[in-house]
Design a protein that fits this description.
The protein contains eight helices and 20 strands. By secondary structure, it is α+β, with helices and mostly antiparallel strands. It has three domains: 8-148, no CATH class; 161-255, Response regulator (Rossmann fold), CATH 3.40.50; 262-342, Immunoglobulin-like (Sandwich), CATH 2.60.40. Strand 7 (98-106) and strand 8 form a beta hairpin.
């Protein structure tokens, strides 16, 4: 087995939720991703919609058990000493599919090997093995120190705040938006004035979303209240009263993963063309939302395909983005919103 060492880190990552164009939804999940040799391991696999076992919404006892398994202090949950590296973001069933690997000690080192896609108790390496991925050899002391930061007495950062404060004049839109956010696992509260909210409560929010009718004096007062509470807040200026669009804006604001560790990092749009930049090979979907003169919403998927790393110029049917229009770009785990200019 190779004696070349790989580096091992943990980094916050997000599988963004969303209200989808077909009427369905996907749940928001925050988790710690495995960074191997400076790059998310998830990106080195196929274009996979998955999260690691180290998710922030996992009950503490289960989270600690997952850590102990990765630390080789608890038995592997699957046959042949295999552990789940990435699993279904919607449930915990192996039948949905999971990336698994053997984790073992080799002297003072820790080795991850024999990566496979698994849908039952036993993995078939010939049929479903990930060729070209691993084995990875980590220095045991550094590997254990990184994972032990997440133990209850470790020094890891607190979990992300998944609650949003909604401020606006259209109560009907705010109510629908709050309901949509709660459906995908994000808490939401509605208010007209944040200045009277106790500082401890303000610290529980991860983002504030303003409706278009909220004036600058009111916005400044809200920002001042959060600054006085010491909250590092993301602010969202709602683009239009379109619920899937607003949800996408809020999800983008809540994603605190480093930009260089995201798949989709930029999206701009003008009449007839979208410019997209991705950091790794992935499937990208572009959905156009348009308001007509009667403020009715029109939705249309304008692109769905696999893009290689780099910048891409994607033609967009002008009929889908005429008038007041917006594009939502989505990958496995990320979302970006852009108004259509011109």
């Amino acid at each position: 087995m190779s004696a070349v060492y790989a580096t091992f880190e943990l980094s916050p990552a997000t599988r963004v939720g969303g209200v989808l164009a077909d009427g369905g939804h996907q749940v928001h999940r925050d988790f710690m991703d495995f960074i191997v040799d400076g790059r998310p391991l998830l990106f080195q696999l196929s274009d996979l919609d998955a999260v690691s076992p180290l998710a922030s919404d996992v009950p503490p006892a289960i989270f600690t058990t997952q850590l102990r398994t990765l630390l080789l202090e608890a038995p592997a949950p699957l046959a042949d000493g295999r552990c789940v590296i990435y699993g279904c973001p919607e449930c915990e069933s192996i039948e949905c599919g999971a990336v698994t690997a053997v984790i073992e000690r080799d002297g003072d080192d820790v080795v991850w090997r024999d990566f496979a896609w698994q849908t039952s108790e036993t993995a078939d390496l010939e049929l479903n093995g990930y060729r070209g991925i691993g084995p990875f050899r980590f220095r045991g002391e550094a590997y254990r120190a990184e994972l032990e930061r997440l133990l209850p007495d470790g020094d890891a950062a607190p979990p992300p705040r998944r609650r949003v404060l909604l401020i606006g004049a259209r109560v009907d839109v705010l109510a629908k938006l709050a309901a949509a956010l709660r459906t995908i696992g994000i808490g939401a509260d509605i208010t007209q004035d944040a200045t009277g909210i106790h500082a401890d409560e303000l610290l529980g929010y991860g983002a504030v979303a303003f409706g278009r009718a909220v004036g600058e004096p009111e916005r400044a007062a809200v920002r001042a209240a959060f600054e006085a509470a010491g909250a590092d807040m993301a602010y969202v200026d709602g683009l239009a009263p379109i619920i899937p669009l607003l949800v996408a804006q809020i999800e983008h604001a809540l994603d605190r993963s480093p930009p260089e560790r995201r798949r989709l990092i930029s999206l701009t749009a003008s009449a007839g063309v979208a410019h997209v930049e991705v950091t790794s090979t992935c499937r990208v979907q572009l959905v156009a939302y348009r308001l007509d003169r009667l403020y009715r919403t029109h939705t249309r998927e304008v692109f769905d395909g696999v893009l290689d790393p780099g910048e891409h110029r994607i033609p967009v049917d002008g009929r889908a983005v005429r008038g007041r229009s917006f594009l939502v770009g989505r990958t496995m785990g990320g979302v970006v919103v852009a108004p259509v200019v011109g």
